[in-house]
Amino acid sequence: MKITAITAPGQKNVNEWVNRVAALCQPDEIHWCDGSVEENERLCGQMVESGTFIRLDPEKRPNSFCCRSDPDDVARVEDHTYICSLRKGDAGPTNNWREPRGMKRELMELFDGCMRGRTLYVIPFSMGPIGSPMAQIGVQVTDSPYVVVNMRLMTRIGKAVLERLGKGPFVPCLHTVGAPVQPGETDVPWPCNKKTKYIVHFPEERSIWSYGSGYGGNALLGKKCLALRIASVMAREEGWLAEHMLILGVESPEGKKTYVAAAFPSACGKTNFAMLIPPEPLNGWKITTVGDDIAWIKPGKDGRLHAINPEAGFFGVAPGTSVKSNPNAMASIEANTIFTNVALTPDGDVWWEGMTDEPPPELIDWRGEPWTRDCGRLAAHPNARFTAPASQCPCIDPQWENPKGVPISALVFGGRRSVTVPLVSQAFNWSHGVYLGATMGSEKTAAAAGSVGDVRNDPMAMLPFCGYHMGDYFNHWLNVGRNLPNPPRIFMVNWFRKGRDGKFLWPGFGENMRVLKWIVQRAHGRAYALECPLGWIPRYKDLDWTGLDDFPFERFEALMSVDRKLWMAEVHQHESFFLRLYDRLPKEFTSERELLISRLWRSPEVWHLASEIHE
Fold first, then answer.
1. In 26, 239, 428, 458, which residue has its Cα 20 to 30 A from 212's Cα atom?
2. How far is Cα 146 from Cα 43, in angstroms, rounded to an integer?
3. Of 242, 596, 263, which Cα lies nearest the Cα of 432?
4. Cβ–Cβ contacts within 10 Å for residue 71, how many?
5. What is the mean pLDDT of residues 6-27?
6. From CA 176, how far away is CA 213, in angstroms rounded?
7. pLDDT at 515
8. Measured distance CA(192)–CA(75) in Å, rounded
9. DSSP-based three-state secondary structure for 88
């Protein structure tokens, strides 16, 4: 066995763990990653030679690469993701659970010799700015150079992390593609195990084992595995929150900065909101991005919640991203970017559906096959991704790497709902706000006009990512608020409500700034609101319509109306979901549900903004 680069001087616990892993996995070499530019260039060059990477045109996309995964390895494998807590009840009914000792035995058999013919890479990484009291250090072992170069973009890696770690604790993260190379065997560009995949979390010992996949959150173990599933357990024990949330800064024309964290399920405009560009008539307002996916939120000495983005890069969904929908994201990926499962243009650039109004006449698709406009199939995979440094984002917030985090004044929840849910509402108090987040849902498919659609529960957008029982998770949220003298205000938004003609009532994208402006003003107690059965809502005149003068009151009223019949059905759906968590469900939720029913029954059959408040 050949050992290259550094070990961890004085760090006996790291060295011993790496040696045990190497003895089990039996790699040909061990390489300790230092995170340097030279190391990255060497690994990328090796992957170009092996066929894993395709170097893009250096003038169009400097230092950027395209790669294609195996068609059986294109997304997270939720069905094979496990929480192996000591007690089944601690994992809860929304997670897959396996008994830890039995799972360890099964994994040991799979990992035995799994890295033969490959190099074992050791990646010391920090989630959060190195040295931040809010950061956590992990050490990932992997046999995938693709993982190394992506982790370099998504986290802080290398010598500085080991120096900061000292003799302290770390989260051990063991990953293999599960495809040893036997003597005389030729390797493939994207090695993975087509039949067997496991993403396993051991919350009590704070460790992660991943087998068989080389893609995304299955393999980049700092992301969903550590930053959410394991960190959520840490957060519960230590009194903070690890959340699937973006963080943005809102600067008023007067120069006052307000920070907002927001949770949206997939396909609900999360990245677009994180990098929002205000419409021209509101250009005195500025939006900056702290993070687009994950927030670690901790109580500060000032009695407020403070948040960091534990990641260092963006791992964004490419399809649908364009200069029209998100110019800041497009600017962020102009260089130093890894594109996975996108299409290639003849001139050495990348393309995906939604990137331009008209696709190029000819491409090489994500499977490496010739593609034309009339071929009848997608050029890029729907889950195609880009990995880019957050520092390249034009609207990155100056405080995004502040080790103390940024103070959060408002929390926003939102899903994709074609009916029922108003454009925006504010919770009456913290308990009511937690209930709103816990009952958040999003439509699986676009609903027909006038129908509720098929709605899936996704509380706080955390259903696939919470590392313990959801009932305990809700109780923890309530406890965090109880101990805060000045908790953030909580809001619910819905950009996707439709009219009777089946068309969206709200223009969305940059126009969301008008709603965000009201949210920020409410968080500081400087905007009016009207009480409705669901919370506090703005009147028509409370939003800034400058430059959108043709948006009639009647359309706004349709956006804000509350239909009692639809909401009673919604409440029954809340109850159905809560029954799965009943043994650990917060008692406050029963009260909040009854209060909601009471407010609905006291209201008109369809509650709407009365015409006399329109001026």
1. 458
2. 8
3. 596
4. 12
5. 87
6. 7
7. 98
8. 13
9. helix
* Segments of 494-544 assigned E as strands: 530-532, 535-537
Tell me the β-bridge partners of 246. 262
| Residue 412, both tokens | 């926003």
**β 81-83/198-202 pair status:** parallel
Rounded (10°) angle between helices 470-482 and 430-438: 160
Comparing CA positions, the residue from 188, 195, 227, 224 lying closest to residue 211 is: 195
- pTM, 2 dp: 0.95
Compute φ and ψ for 409, nearest 5 degrees.
-100, -20
Q: Which of 12, 233, 198, 220 is nearest to 121 (CA)?
A: 220
Quote the CA–CA distance of 412 and 368 in Å, as a whole number.
41
* Percentage helix, strand, coil for the chain under 3-state DSSP, each rounded to 5: 30, 25, 45
Other residues' Cβ atoms within 10 Å of the Cβ of residue 377: 10
334-371 pLDDT, tens per residue?
A: 999 999 999 999 999 999 999 999 999 999 999 999 99
* Residue 588 identity (one-letter amino acid): E
| CA separation for the pair 356, 370 (Å, rounded) | 19
Choose the catalytic residue: 84, 268, 395, 466.
268
Amino acid making up residue 96: N
User: How large is the C-alpha radius of gyration of the chain?
Assistant: 25
Which element (helix H / strand E) includes 102? helix 100-111
Active site residue 66: no
* Residue listed under structure tokens 């989630």: 127
CB atoms within 10 A of CB 325: 18
Buried b (16+ CB within 10 A) or exposed e, 340-359: bbbbbbeebbbbbbebeeeb
